[in-house]
Amino acid sequence: MRVVVDGVTKTFKDKKGREVTALSKIDFAIDRQEFVVLVGPSGCGKSTLLNIVGGLLSPSEGSVYFDGLSSAGSDPRLGIVFQEIALLPWRTVFENVIYGLEEMGISKKEQKEKGQYYIDMVGLTGFEQAFPKQLSGGMKQRAGIARALAIEPDLLLMDEPFSALDAQSRTLMQEELLTIWNRTKLSTLYVTHNIQEAVYLADRVIVLSRHPGKIKEIIRIDLPKTGRDQEEHRIQFDEYVKQIWDLIRHDAQDALKEG
Amino acid sequence: MGETKKYIKNRVAFLDLKVPGYAPVIGIAGLLLLWEIVCRLGWVAPLYLPAPTAILAAGWEMLTKGELLQNLGASLYRIVLGYLLGASVGIIVGLLLGFSRWADAIGSPILYSLYPIPKIALLPLIVLWLGIGELPKVTIIALGVFFPVVINTFSGVKNVDSVLIKAAVSFGSNHFNVIRKVILPGALPVIFAGLKLAAGTSLLLLVAAEMIAAQHGIGSMILHYGNLMITTKLMVGILVLSMLGLLLNRGLQWLENKLLPWK
Questions:
Q1: Which of A36, A249, B15, B66 is the least crowded, having the fewest Cβ atoms under 10 Å away?
Q2: Which keywords fit this entry according to its UniProt record (chain A) (predicted)?
Q3: What is the pLDDT at residue B39?
């Protein structure tokens, strides 16, 4: 199974009625069990691209399709983890996690089993009956991740999932995400503006430029999937970070000026 | 040189000053006491302002004779039926207007042109159309409740975070489930604001409708004793209305706490 992004272009009309090209002719594919990270400066359209892949926005041109899906006939399942977390505030953690399972129409018993399995996996055991507002940002996003994992998606989409967290929670959550990912090995598309995070998590990093959003370079990270933060990989790790930063730097400076 | 200590005090302590629990009672009890004294000393004739104790005595008498319950029953029937009808139709229409762009474009201009009409002005028209039975009274109350509820529901729906709707759809919800599981609960806090607003309107319209044409009901009872200049019994009617209003508000507050534990 592969997810193919084929010639995706997205244009908007700005407030003055001018055409603005947010994304221009984006082509890439995500392989089975591959972790792809989109990285770029603010305004490069990386979240727009993720929304198009997630079926929450239509492309102006081009298409996104799944190739060689095993269960013929049914729509591919997408599990999205939102930047805004987007838990329903009136549902408990458990009720939020099983939301997708509920809509799939599976039995209550199965919902309970799967819900509990993924709640345990993300480390929310004991918080099943808590409402989102009772949880910290990191705990909320764990629930968001569990909700996406619970439907056992064909593609996991994550839109800057940890950007609302403080630096310490963020580091811990990155480590945990890697542990979880190694257990599930889901094909994943992950959006971030944090270069260290991209190098830490990705099999491949897609660097986007801005105005218009285009693929600048695709970089394969040739490091073992776990333990990239260990001393023995530090030099290589830093080289990747520098390489990506050099690609983005100029664009990021422009973005800063425009505000 | 002698050193002196200067302690820093909390200069905004007044922001979280605690008031003792008996404080709210002081005002009401004081007012009632003053009222009673003024009447006992004969400063005001009982025809204009009967004493609180006299009103209570008259109320007890009306209660034991069954007069009060008969009138209260008739009023309760009208207001409960009218309120439920207006509120449920208002919520459904508000959800549809808020959810569907088409319904909004077509329905909203009609709604906003009818909204400013004081509903009391429609009473003669409704009596003309529906006669003087129970139906016109229930209808006018339902109408008065419908508008604040529909407008609040609509704005509540518009205030639901669109990322929640996107999340629900991405996890497989169809339109009906989006309305049921996301939009309705998300709009509920604002809907309740409308329901509380409508409670006052419904009481007003109940009394107005009963004063125009009714055999029984608190409104007609008040009018009746007003014409006979039996002020004590008139005041009993007003007291009952005030308690009805309080009860309605408390009931809605209770329901809100029950339905919105996540707030």
A1: B15
A2: ATP-binding, Nucleotide-binding, Transport
A3: 92
Provide the token pair at B61.
């008498």
Which residues have C-beta within 8 Å of that of residue A258, sequence separation ≥ 6?
A: A43
Which residues of chain B have a CB within 8 Å of the CB of A82? 163, 166-167
Residue B196 neighbours by CB distance under 10 Å: 16
Q: How confident is the model over B116-166, as pLDDT tens digits? A: 999 889 988 998 999 888 999 999 999 999 999 999 999 999 999 999 999
Distance between CA atoms of residues A7 and B124, nearest Å: 67
Query: Do the beta carbons of residue A182 and residue A155 sit within 8 Å?
Result: no
> A19 is written with which tokens?
């055409």
Rounded CA gap, A217 and B33, in Å? 84
CB B138 within 8 A of CB B78: yes
- The answer to whether A105 contacts chain B (CB < 8 Å) is no
DSSP A213: B
Residue type for A211, please?
A: H
- In total, chain B counts a number of residues equal to 263
The CATH number of B71-259 is 1.10.3720.10
Q: What is the DSSP letter of A25?
A: E
Residues in chain A: 259
The answer to whether the beta carbons of residues A142 and A128 sit under 8 Å apart is: no
Instruction: Using CA coordinates, name the residue in chain A closest to B184.
Output: A90
